[in-house]
Amino acid sequence: MTDALRWFLTALDLTGVILLAVAFAQMLLAALLPRVRHRPARGGDALHFTFLIPALNEGRVIGATVTTLRTLAPDARVVVIDDGSDDHTAAVVQALAGQDSGIALLRRSLPYARRGKGEALGWATRHLLDRLPTDDLQREIFVVVDADGRITPDLLPEARAAMADPRVVGAQARVRIRPSATGLSVQSVMGRMLEQQQDLEFTVIRSVQRLRHRWHTVGLCGNGQFMRASYLHAQFTRGTPPWPDCLSEDFASGLEMRLASPEHRMVLLEAAVTQQGLPDLRRFLRQRARWAQGTLQCWPYLPRVWQEPMPLRARLDLSYYLLGPWLSGVVTLCLLSQPLRWALHTHGLILNPVIGGGLAVLTTGMQLHWLARYQHEQRLNAAQFVLLLLGQPLYGLVLSASLLLAYRHHVTGRRAWDKTVRHVEAPDALRVGSGD
C-alpha cells in the first residue's frame, strides 16, 4: 500500500471517529434534556392563527383535515392553497367554505401552478398579507400544515404561550406518524414496520430539537411550522422569499428566519402535529433522497452563517446540519472502507479492537436507549416491540441508500420531486392525542 493511500485512509478513519463521537455526544445531550415548557405570558391571547394548507390533488384527505382544524381551532382561519389540482380538491374545499366563513380557498392555475410548495406558500402569504392591516402583523401567526396534517388539542395553547414573546418569530411542533389502517398481510406488516421507524425517528428528532431550542436554531419542517406575519412581511419587503426555491424549502425557510436578524428566536413546541407515514419502501426512499438533496442545495448558506451576528453555538449547530449529508457520506465511506484495510492486511482505527469495540458499545447502547424510551412512551406490546427491533437494520439501509441517491441527483442536476400519495383514513384514525 502506498504512503499516499495509507495517509488518506488514516485521515478518513480519524475524521470518521471524530464525527461518530460528535454524533454520540449530541444524542447523549439530547437524551438528557427535559421537556420544553413555555410559560404563559401577556399578549398570547391577542394572537390570531391562520392555517395554510398547500394542496395538489389532495381530494382524499383535504376534507377531513379542514374539518378537524376547524373543530379543534374554531377561532383560527383555514386557508387551502390549491396548486393546480386536477382532482376534486377544490370542490371539496369550496363546499366546506360555503358552510363556514372561517374556511377560504386560494387557487393557482397552470402554467403558474405546480412550481413547488415554497412558491405556493409565498404566493398565498403575500396575497393574505396585502389584506392584513399593518397593526395586525405582529399578532398574526401563519401555521403551515400538510394536507394530511392533524393538530393535537394542546398545540395552539402552547403556541400562544411561546409566541407571546415578540422575539419568537418561528416555532416548530413535534411531528408524529399515524399508522395506516390496513389488514394483516406481508405488505401491510412491512408498511407498518416502516411507519413505526419513521415515528421513532421523529421521536429522536424531538429530543434533538430540545437541544437546538436552547440556542434558538430549531429546525422547521413542512408540517406544523409557525411563522409570524411581521417576519414574512419584512422578508417580502427586502425581496427575499421566506421559502427559498429548493427541494427542502422548509429547512431553507428556517435558515432564512434565523439569519434575517440576530434577535430572532425559534422555539420547539412539544405538542404534536400528526401526519400519514409512508408505508411504501420505494416512495420512502425517494422522499428521503429528496430531503437530503434539498439540504445539499442549501450549502451556499454556510458563509452567511459565519458572517451574520449570532452566538458561536448557533453557528456550529447550523453548520453541522448544513454539512449533514456530506458528513454522513464521510462516515459511510469510512465504514465501507474497512474491508479494504482487512484485504490489504492493515488495520484502520475502526478495526482496532479498543476503538471499534468502544464505538460499537456506545452506538448500540444509545440505540437501545431510544428503543426503550419509545417503547415506554408508546406502551408497545411484545409483538410491536419485536417489529420495532426488526425494522432497525432495514431502516438504516434505506437511509444509506437514499443518501447515495441524493448524491447522484445532486451531481446530475436532477430535481426529483415526487408527489406523496395519501390514503383515505377511517374515522377512528382521525382521533389524535398529545402523544407525550
Structure, explained:
With 436 residues, the protein is an alpha/beta fold. The protein is built from 15 helices and 8 strands. It has an 8-stranded mixed β-sheet, sandwiched between helices. α1 packs parallel to α14 (353-378), α2 packs parallel to α3 (89-99) and α9 crosses α15. The longest helix is centred in the last third of the chain and has 31 residues, at 382-412. It is globular, with a radius of gyration of 22 Å. The chain starts with a helix and ends in a 24-residue tail after the last helix.
Give the tags.
436 residues, alpha/beta, 8 strands, 54% helix, globular
Fold blueprint:
Blueprint lengths: L2 H30 L15 E8 L6 H11 L4 E7 L5 H11 L3 E6 L8 H14 L9 E5 L5 E2 L3 H9 L4 E11 L7 H28 L11 E4 H9 L11 H12 L4 E12 L4 H16 L4 H7 L4 H11 L1 H13 L1 H6 L9 H26 L3 H31 L24
Parallel strand pairs: 1-2, 1-4, 2-3, 6-8
Antiparallel strand pairs: 4-7, 5-8, 6-7
Helix pairs in contact: 1-6, 1-12, 1-14, 2-3, 6-15, 9-15, 10-11
